[in-house]
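Discussion board: Methods & Data

I've been asked by a reviewer to show the raw model output for two of the constructs in my manuscript, not just the figures. I'm not sure how much to include, so I'm pasting the format here to get opinions. Each protein appears as its amino acid sequence followed by a line of discrete structure tokens. Is this the kind of thing reviewers expect to see in a supplement, or should I convert it first? Here is construct A:
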Amino acid sequence: MKRYDIYENLNNYLESNWTKTDIAWEGLQYNVSGNQSYIKPFLRIGNSEQLEIGGNNPNALDIEDGFYLIQILTPVSQGIYQAQITGESLRSVFRRQSPINGVTIGNTSLKDPYIDDDDERFYLSILIIEIVNFICES
């Protein structure tokens, strides 16, 4: 599985299982409304190790880890409680759902909402979904 396959698989899962807010996809234009919640997913790859059995193996596997990060933006006018509810609802979509389309999911953590430095109309919280030991083709 290549990195873009992993990202596509997670995005497809998110799109199929999340209907509470709009999704602002990375690399696509999204028109922000000051009174509507939305989420923004990103994939960030971390460490990579090569696994080979029996020496100089041309079929060695790359074992990688990383994070699927989802920013959750909730209008300040809806209150911090709504920001927390939206975050927990999104977290429940990924909790204990491993593997997802072939991607092994580890821990999920949700950061407390705070006023977004870039746009003070929104509370920003981040859902961090750990991806562990997926195998990536070279």
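Construct B, same format:
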Amino acid sequence: MSLPPLWAALAGVLLGLGVATLCGWTIGRMFMAGLTGREKFAWSFAIGLMVQALALLVVVAVGARPTTAALLGIEAGIGIAALLAGILRRRAAPGWFPAGRKFDALAFALAAVAGAAWALFLLTAIADAPWATDFFAVWGYKAKIVYGAGSVPRRLFADPALDFAHPEYPLLVPLSLSALGVAAGRWNEPALALFYPACALATLLALWGFLARRVSRPAGALAAALSALCFFLYRPSNVGTAEIPFALAAVLAAVAASDFVLEASAGETARLAAAALFAASVKQEGALLSVLLAAAVWGKLRTTEARRARNGALALVLPVALHGLLQVVLRGHRPSRDFDLALLSPGRWGELPARFGTALARLLSADVLPASVPLLAIVVLLIATERGAVDWLLGVLALQLLGYVAAFTLSAYGPAYAVDAAFSRIATTLFPALTLVLAARLMSSEPAWAHQTSPPAGMSDSGESSGESARRAPRLHGVGTTGNSRNEKGP
């Protein structure tokens, strides 16, 4: 007895996502030592999506029509090669679930909230086919053309009649949707919607794992819960767009940069590069975020560790440049139709202040005022709590938002139209990254006895049993604190 079409398609999409994640793990295992199992899943998922898109491009590049066997076969071949490379380099394969866990009731409760919110999003996402305008006009449109044609047709980039599909946009999301359609053996839009809860799950796990390792388990679970409850991001109208994948990209870039600032090794540098490439491949905003993080990393380290500062900045910038070069090779030079770049000519500089003011005024009236209560709560929280170890991300996120306003100033359709059409939607993609700062501040307070010269009997300075503390390094509780990325064992 055969499965109903939707269930068969869902099984195929799950197979495609699973193989991609496993393939990503075989590559990422070489620079994921010390991460929690949750983080390893998130990184494996993101790397796997890039490998899966590459596999699809390889198939069409040789003139073959993509099939399930060909696509999964290439991914399996890449995974096996990565495993062999790791064995030859004699690198220990980090396990998914290291030992040494202990139950934390608060973390469990917060994780349950996050899980329930994510399950609700899962059900709403696959209950119907994606219906967002951007899915029909941009991301899903390109994916369906690639799937139907069995290639990446030149007309996607050269045909002026298809300018509405934004040929200048990055291709990872359309290629991922097309590859999952190939893996499923059919184009089934409700099944392909499963891609978005998968991205959301990877985002929540990345937040949870990083803060559990760097701050505390409740901090990680709180960040996951806050993000999962962001229904302005995780809602059906964003299924089929690039917003939810970009939220994952922003979180991975933020945690990779934070790890690099705290302790640099080959693993942290490699994750920086992977995060930058993933962010730039998802949305154009990813290139800006990577450049801002590069400037922040360089600024924080240049006076004390100039070489490490340079390496970190290059690890973030070079993948963005490489991606831009590959896009030019694939589609040629296609200026964005969203922006009137003639405004940058000296003769029109006088128009920019008024346009910037228009964008800012519209943003305040249409987006900031309606969201004044949660925004005020965030401001009060930042004022009332002590500075945290990842507070430096606030500056990067603020500059990213300012970059959006500057882009709206150059809008070919007028600043007010651009704000109304895009700001609230793209701004919410940064909220999961912001929860890194919020949760670290709320949950990083040490108990009073942690400041005593001699801790209570049977307890170490970190608040754990002496046997467990031998397996953990100190957590981060404030600015200027150093730590080890291996201080959290367990998923």
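Answer (T.O., handling editor elsewhere):
This is acceptable in a supplement if you add a one-line summary per construct. For B, something like: Residues 5-92+107-334+341-443 form one domain.
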